[in-house]
Amino acid sequence: MKGLRGERLASEFQKAIYEIISRKLRDRAPGLSAIISVTGADVAPDLKTAKIYVSIYDTSEERKISSFNTIKENAGFIRHELAGMLRIRTVPALTFILDGSMEYGAHIDEIINKLDVKPE
Fold first, then answer.
1. DSSP 8-state secondary structure symbol assigned to residue 105
2. Where are the alpha helices (DSSP H) in the chain?
3. How many CB atoms lie within 10 A of CB 97?
4. Are strands 93-98 and 49-57 parallel, antiparallel or unpaired?
5. Which has the closest alpha carbon to 42: 11, 70, 16, 82?
């Protein structure tokens, strides 16, 4: 969604969904990974759909996938909670997409640490 209103809505969605996942969803599903971030939100101009980018960092790939599946399965719950937090006429259907940016950053840090480059 382009424009100032679209950017503001995407930012509000990102913050609100992070709050819902970190507080309310964690109460419902205590097995979620420790580090979950909502890295972005892309809201359609008609507010019918929204793509929510989620980054999960966990040492176990199984727990990471399980946490992502839990978030996807609770999309209706998250949408319902979102409707209570935001004052908009239409709350879009949420599609969650796994974002690997945290994992990629950790991998780059690991490579840099292996290089053991010392400044001159």
1. H
2. 3-19, 26-28, 61-73, 75-85, 101-115
3. 13
4. parallel
5. 11
Closest CA to 96 of 63, 49, 57: 49
Tokens coding 4: 């100032």
Dist CA 45 CA 24 (whole Å): 28
Bridging pattern class, strands 35-43 and 49-57: antiparallel
Mind listing the pLDDT tens digit for each residue in 28-70?
A: 888 888 789 999 999 888 889 999 999 988 888 899 899 999 9
Name the nearest CA neighbour of 95 among 78, 117, 119, 80. 78
The closest of 13, 63, 60, 64 to 40, measured between CA atoms, is 13
Query: Per residue in 7-17, pLDDT tens?
Result: 888 899 999 99
Q: What is the pTM of this model?
A: 0.80
